[in-house]
């Protein structure tokens, strides 16, 4: 097939899927006549394309890496957002308990019904556990020890992203005068970590439920700090050995209580937890033991 262009005759040949255009010679970069077809046949064009491809490879790799990172972040957000929710029965029973007033919201609040609270506690939930899952275990403690309890919502249900929440909550309450902080599992570790930053707020004590202090908190020399650590003998996540190994990170006067037969999930009411051991006591017995430990420690204040 021939084509007339600008007075010149170009010849086009079709070979299967390929199309070659033999145009009149034109000057190459070295001054010689070099046609497009000649460059294809000699491989010059292939080299140019290879160079272009090699330059675009890092960009393609970067785009793929960015896409994978985005997927990983999204997967993490979805995973963290799927918090273990409160078991309906125990939650409803605690809300209906006339001895305690319960307010559900972004900050779960429990206060004794019959008296003004003598102390306040800011309590951090465990990792991916909904704050309402601790209402049933805190209700009898709040009622029997005249304690105001605040359980805040954590970003992505992880206290590591909200360890200073106690600062704001305590500042928002003029009373009571005495404040404690604490938490379950990761929540307890983050409460201890926050105390290690020496916050401006005067905090009287630390409550650890199936938890321990972090190395960086440096609480061992805090003689002014009251500490209650309650652990479960059947805890498969924060095991008795874990608690014992980190005992030196707490003040010498810390009260250590191990509840025989209690497991990790019984510190809240959210059902069984993967990796935990089977308890040998009932939820009611576990809550009673937990309550007794707090009654005794608070009575000594």
Give a verbal description of the structure.
- There is one protein chain.
- The chain is α/β, with parallel strands linked by helices.
- It folds into 2 domains: 2-42, no CATH class; 84-299, Rossmann fold, CATH 3.40.50.
- It contains 8 helices and 11 strands.
- Helix 7 links the parallel strand 10 and strand 11.
- The longest helix is centred in the first third of the chain and has 38 residues, at 44-81.
- The radius of gyration is 34 Å and the shape is globular.
- Mean pLDDT is 85; it is low at 1-25.
Give the overall form.
Answer: globular
CATH topology of the largest domain: Rossmann fold
**Whole-number count of domains:** 2
Number of helices: 8
User: Share of helix among residues?
Assistant: 25-40%
The tally of beta strands, per DSSP, is 11
Query: Looking at this structure, what is the CATH superfamily of the largest domain?
Result: Alpha/Beta hydrolase fold, catalytic domain
- What is the CATH C-level name of the largest domain? Alpha Beta
Radius of gyration: 34 Å
Main β-sheet, spatial strand arrangement: 4-5-7-6-8-9-10-11
Q: What is the mean predicted local confidence, pLDDT? A: 85
Distance between the termini: 103 Å
Q: Supply the helix-strand structural class.
A: alpha/beta
Unreliable residue stretches: 1-25
Order of helices and strands: EEEHHHEEEHEHEHEEHEH
Please give a handful of descriptors for the protein shown.
301 residues, alpha/beta, Rossmann fold, 8-stranded mixed beta sheet, 3-stranded antiparallel beta sheet, 8 helices, 11 strands, 35% helix, globular, disordered N terminus
């Amino acid at each position: 097939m021939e084509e007339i262009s600008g007075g010149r005759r170009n010849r086009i040949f079709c070979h299967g899927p390929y199309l070659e255009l033999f145009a009149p010679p034109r000057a190459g970069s070295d001054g010689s006549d070099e046609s497009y077809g000649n460059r294809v046949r000699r491989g010059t064009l292939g080299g140019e394309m290879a160079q272009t491809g090699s330059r675009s490879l890092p960009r393609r790799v970067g785009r793929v890496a960015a896409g994978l990172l985005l997927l990983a972040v999204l997967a993490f957000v979805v995973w963290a957002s799927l918090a273990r929710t409160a078991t309906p029965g125990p939650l409803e029973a605690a809300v209906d308990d006339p001895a305690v007033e319960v307010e559900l919201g972004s900050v779960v609040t429990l206060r004794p019904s019959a008296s003004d609270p003598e102390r306040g506690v800011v309590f951090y939930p465990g990792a991916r556990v909904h704050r309402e899952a601790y209402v049933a275990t805190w209700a009898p403690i709040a009622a029997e020890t005249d304690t105001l309890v605040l359980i805040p919502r954590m970003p992505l249900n992880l206290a590591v992203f909200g360890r200073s929440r106690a600062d704001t909550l305590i500042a928002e309450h003029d009373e009571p005068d005495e404040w404690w902080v604490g938490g379950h599992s990761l929540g307890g570790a983050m409460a201890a970590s926050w105390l290690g930053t020496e916050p401006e707020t005067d905090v009287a004590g630390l409550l650890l439920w199936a938890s321990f202090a972090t190395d960086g908190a440096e609480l061992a020399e805090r003689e002014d700090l009251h500490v209650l650590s309650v652990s479960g003998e059947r805890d498969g996540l924060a095991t008795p050995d874990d608690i014992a190994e980190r005992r030196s990170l707490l003040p010498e006067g810390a009260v250590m209580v191990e509840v025989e037969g209690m497991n990790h999930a019984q510190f809240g009411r959210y059902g069984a937890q993967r990796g935990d051991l089977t308890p040998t006591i009932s939820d009611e017995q576990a809550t009673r033991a937990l309550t007794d430990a707090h009654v005794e420690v608070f009575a000594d204040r």
